[in-house]
Amino acid sequence: MFILVGLTRSSFGADGVTSIETGYTVSKVRTALIKGNSYVVASSYEGTVFGIAYSGRVGWENKLSGYMNHDLWCEDITGDGTDEILVANADGHLYCLNSRGELQWTFKKNDAPMYAVCVLHHQAKTYVVCGGYDNHIYYLSPVGDLVKDLPSLGYSVSKPWGNDPHKPSPPKKLHVANFLRKIKNADGTESLVVHGMMNGMQDKGVLYLFEPLADKPWSTIPLESKSPMGELRVCEVEGKSEILMGASSMIHDASVAVIDAKAGDQRIFGISSLGRKLDSFGYRVAQPEVISSAQQTQYFVLFGSRILLLPTDLDKGKTEVLVCRYSFNDMWKDPLTHRIVFASAQSGGSCIHILDPNHPDWKTEYENLSPPGKIATILENTAMVREQLKTFKRPAWERDPLPVYLMSENRKTVEALVEELRSSYGSPVFLNGFHMGTAEDWDRSAIESEKYRDRRDRRRKYSLTQDQALEQIVSHYDDGPGDDGPGDDGPGIAYWAGHGNDPYMFSLDTTKKVIAAANGKKTVLIYPELEDHSPEFEYVMDDLIYPLADAAKGKNANIFVRTKHVFWQGNVYLPAWKHLLSGEYADVFVPSMEETTDKSMELSLAARLGIWTSGAVNSWGGRCARDNASYDRARQHSHQMLPNHFLRMMVYDISHGTQYLDNFSVDQQYMSLLWELIAKGALYVPKREEIVSFSPVHISMKKPDETYIERGSNTKWCTFFDQDFEDKNPMVFGRLNGSWPGAPNTPWDFSRYAAGVKDRRLNFLPPYDRGLVLITPPQQGVFADSDAPRGQLKDHLHPLYKNILKEFITDGRQYFSPNGKKHYAANAVYQTVESEIRNRSKLLPLTVTGDVAWVVAQSSPTHLRLTLVDSGYINPSGKTASVSFHSVKPMKMTDVVSGASIDISDPSSVNVDVPCGLFRFVDVELVESL
User: Residue ranges of the Lambda-carrageenase beta-propeller domain (predicted)?
Assistant: First the structure.
């Protein structure tokens, strides 16, 4: 360890932008003082806090709880001239570290994630002020003792909206402390700035300004911006204290707000007004600061991969936009050196970047920035795989690949490759996906549900006649990939036929005519966000969805059910979906998900696979979108420009048998590697009866508990936290509402004991190190549907499962006996379930540990295909997978793509390196047939 001293201005290099490799994916950056000099304090995605000199040397690190840190504040609270580091952690603690990274004290009131922290001075005393998802603010002494508890209920003006009894709004007058910051007043005193938020996706919130220790604010300022706020800073501009705020939103609602702290006047700059100077669709946080030179003062705004330099009068005509290849996780201005510190690139970077706004070349260097470290490694690794594919030959013993349907890929920049793949391989199949900004204007008077008769999707115009709608839709059957106009070689189409906001976007008759016009070509009808679990939605199913499914039978047509939240381990087990669950439409329905906001990806994966393996459906679907990374909508740093996380997620899903991909296009040159892996057979697409990495233990869902469904579907509101409820209601699938971003999973939660996932965040690539535990329809006892056309789970799985399956039954809240007469609390029997998972894992051919996602499928009588994936979704790193063999004996292990042999001299534990941001496809040759 070294002491971080001497970090003066002269410590900087001569460059306008300096990149410092840390080895971590850095999520947050601040600066701290030690003996009058500054250094960088950073927090990694994993929750490690470390101090790093501008020279690049790491002085100290502290892993703390191992959970994410929501906020950092660096300030001297002991009066020794050296800053302490205050850390608001998702485990509910506030941690205080000294300048050597040593823990000084902690504070925790309850289990709600701690979200914001700052320091306030009043009458010669210092207070640490913190708050979190329990809707309270706490004043602490410099040694962590509680001085004052300030509940938002005592002053908040928040008023939730909505009247849906199946997705209730929270109580009034509650908010989360989204930001806590201080204002230094002209007389030298300080005031507390609180930004209160009750909904991380739809609430722009309210500013409250307090005198220290006051019960009521001296000023309450409802914000005039359109969207939630993801940044708040207090800056001095021309002698006045200004509160600068930046939105966390999609681009059309993005803004910067400049608020006069004394008068409360607001000026809003709509970022979308810059038009083509910006890149397109995405979810970003606008992070504003102030920079000054001898010539001018400007607002410096980091916005995804752009820096906006705004004049203080917010004149867009005088705004300069700087363009970089990458977006970054955070930004901080060092008040001592006036340099700007960037956290790592969002695409899995591992550097911090120092910008010197006074350097003459800083703008050019920013625009040309290509981060070293993990970004460079990821690009090198994927280039290596692409080169190896040039000479790859699919193993002779493997069957022909199954088709994979790419439903929505933009092909404009990769037309030559698409044509080459189409002409040489049968898969992937590039469907003609298209988006319609208009919908059908038809007579809905016969719809008996008033709710759905009157609903419309506000994002589109309802102006088409049936003939116009058919003309637009049907023409795409004849568009070939890359065509600019009609042709005759289109393989099929995919489009939104409806949406949860309006399932009746097109009439049933119109959509039936679309299917009839296909002439055998593939039709995929996408229905996003069908999450309504009210009785009224049963009418929609009977009036629209099931008749449409009848029309799709035998017509090479599918209904792509792209739902959200706990749907596949919850809503689908409600009466409305019984005909899907029964398997009556196994060739029609395709389960998929919008994995945004939910923080429970390991559950939906197990649930979709459970529906598929049960025989209820014969295919399942995957999806990647910009806001996949938006586990916390109030901090949507979800503008990854290098879609490596998409690539690995799709490799993992396809290796589990998904054949329908509905992806948002980001960098098609990069993502086209996936298409080549599919086409050439390097990526093996298994049938469900070939997969041998499912745990013999499965969790079966009876009709879901109402509280579980309600809380699991209510992910936007942030103010539901109730410690008493949590203590009295242990859940099998818990901490799913909007109060738990990044929070630890409880010991009795399925996500922890079965999936091996410790937090509610971005677990798209879960370890499941004892085999993936399926969430299925009940197979035994009173909850089983013995007459369902789908048949039995064991008859759809690999033969090895025939006599080794073990079932546990749940409603999402507790466990039940097969006869339904007994029920057991989640925290009372989870160890029994965990023990069965552990013990029965020895019945599998092999298992894998080592922070990787993995799948095993039998590709011939004596060969297994083992897929290993770097599991760091947005925090990739090189991994070592440890493979343990159980019911089989390996003869040889070979990397399918590179041809490299893997050492199996100790077959009890074989180590396989998985490169950063990559995957390995391994052929395991067995001594005897499985």
Answer: 39-355
